[in-house]
From TrEMBL:
Protein name (database record): NAD(P)-dependent dehydrogenase (Short-subunit alcohol dehydrogenase family)
InterPro entries: NAD(P)-bd_dom_sf, Sc_DH/Rdtase_CS, SDR_fam
Source taxon at top rank: Bacteria
Pfam families for this protein: adh_short
PROSITE patterns registered for this protein in UniProt: ADH_SHORT
Lineage, highest ranks first: Bacteria, Bacillati, Actinomycetota, Actinomycetes, Propionibacteriales
Family indicated by similarity: Belongs to the short-chain dehydrogenases/reductases (SDR) family.
Amino acid sequence: MGTLAGKVALVTGASRGVGKGIALGLGEQGATVYVTGRTESGGPATTLLPGTVQKTAAEVTALGGRGVAIGCDHRDDEQTRRAVQRVLDDAGRLDVLVNNVWGGYEYFWDGTPFWEEAGFWTQPLERWDSAFRAGVRAHYVTSVAAAPTMVAQGAGLIVSVSSEGAAKVDTSVAYGAAKAATDHMIACMAHELRDHGVTAVSLYPGLVRTESVLRAAEYFDLSDSESPQFVGRGVAALAADPEVIRFTGQVVRSSALADEYGFSDPVPR
């Protein structure tokens, strides 16, 4: 039996990539994992990349957890609220919320060579709107919907997937600003949630071998990269730690979590 048997998690943006890897990491520890995304089996394609929420849910179940798929476009606040309510109606609790959904990466699949957007003045303004609407705001709205239950439980873990780009200047302006906003938002949430026993952290993965990264592998040095499920094992380790609140308000890195908790990458490079 996994360390998270009986626990309920919600992972947003989990049709593929880091979100899918996190769902799998939670699933292999026995959690019930609700996964959201826009790409559903039998529905219209939302990107050129593979993956659906139903496929992720099935893989969670195959690993020993229980996967449940919820179609959701987190750019729509009402859809986000309904997704959280679905979890609460079904399970009656929520132990782990992973805010992974994001926007602003459209150049990975819309056919735009990324070097053509090398300066912020060359990028469509929609890149900014997407990063903040589908990213920062979606993380906030989902947390707002989930927090009352966690506060009532007196326990819970909120993880927002962020990036080293939050502290760098050699990154996309919209991306860096949105990730920095995410980190500060989580720090402020942690301050308000601490007395209620709820932990909130920002998570920095390393370079992750997502479908989009592998599609553009010639532009990356993958020698020190991580599989998506490695990131998931870090989240699962946090969720199983009875003293996780010692990390609240902080940035945690997947590589540092591996050192802390002693897990390895299930798909080594």
